[in-house]
Amino acid sequence: MMQQLLLLSPSELADLAAAIRTGRLNSPFTATALRRFVSAENLPAAIAGLQTCSNEGMSANASANILDLLASVSISRTPLDELIDLVVTGPAPNAVGRDTAVVVTDLFRRARKSVIVVGYAVSRGREVFGALAERMNQEPNLQVRLYLDIQRSAGDTSADSEIVRRFMHRFATTQWPEGVRLPEVYYDPRALAVDHAERAALHAKCIVVDDQEVFVSSANFTEYAQERNIEIGLSLHSQQVALRIITYLAELVELKKLRPTSIKDIERGLK
């Protein structure tokens, strides 16, 4: 319950620390005693947190030190609305958030080391991925990896490898910008199951750039989703979140839940 103290404001934490350190406030911590230092809204959190400190045998000085530490951390902590941007596609996107197509293009143009794209549907990819392809030409060492949904169409009894080959042919010749090296492409093999009951889709849509910029959205990588539909997403700068997404995808690859298309798939796709 000590984490309840994080709900208090920096000034409330500092006032409580001073009161405990000078002996003006002691256990048991009651609403009547705390009302002078904490707002009515935060009284339950303050009582629970302080009583936990006392029950765990902390001295008054130790409790005060913890409160002072939490106060300083709270002051330095960046507000959530300064870390996360709302990103939308729709009739009036500028009224509430940044435009999806602008955010995606901006992320691609700023990439220096790596780009991960996870998407369900891709259409007019040459336009959607135009900024990424331009950046790849500017940065020859930029690592680009796409996780895409490769599906078995209804009634198609072709081998999995043939469906992957056809997908890569369409992707390489109609969706990826011409004259630019192809990215690594991964897929979920379950989407190719002959038995419909065993199928699953790679339905996520997100971008991770340079292990620190993250964009998660309902928007696919299509003209409609980027420019016309009503879509909502969030963009944030967080190395921790970025690495968790990267680790999750890497674990799926290691478990063969996501598989890479091979160089042969790409080469055959170009023929």
What is the class of the largest domain in the CATH system?
Alpha Beta
Q: How many extended strands?
A: 9
Low-confidence stretches: none
Could you describe the largest sheet, including whether it forms a barrel? 9 strands, mixed
Distance between the termini: 63 Å
Indicate the radius of gyration in whole angstroms.
26 Å
Based on the structure given, which CATH architecture of the largest domain is correct? 2-Layer Sandwich
Report strand order across the widest sheet. 2-1-8-7-6-3-4-5-9
CATH topology of the largest domain: Endonuclease, Chain A
List the helices and strands in order. HHHHHEEHEHHEHEEEHEHEH
Helical percent range?
Answer: 40-55%
The CATH superfamily of the largest domain turns out to be Endonuclease Chain A
Q: What features would you describe in this structure?
A:
It is built from twelve helices and nine strands. The protein has 271 residues and is α/β, with parallel strands linked by helices. The protein folds into two domains: 75 residues, no CATH class; 189 residues, 2-Layer Sandwich (Endonuclease, Chain A). The chain has a nine-stranded mixed beta sheet with strand order 2-1-8-7-6-3-4-5-9, sandwiched between helices. Strand 4, helix 9 and strand 5 form a beta-alpha-beta unit. It is elongated and about 75 Å long.
Which terms summarize this structure?
271 residues; alpha/beta; Endonuclease, Chain A; 2 domains; 9-stranded mixed β-sheet; 12 helices; 15% strand
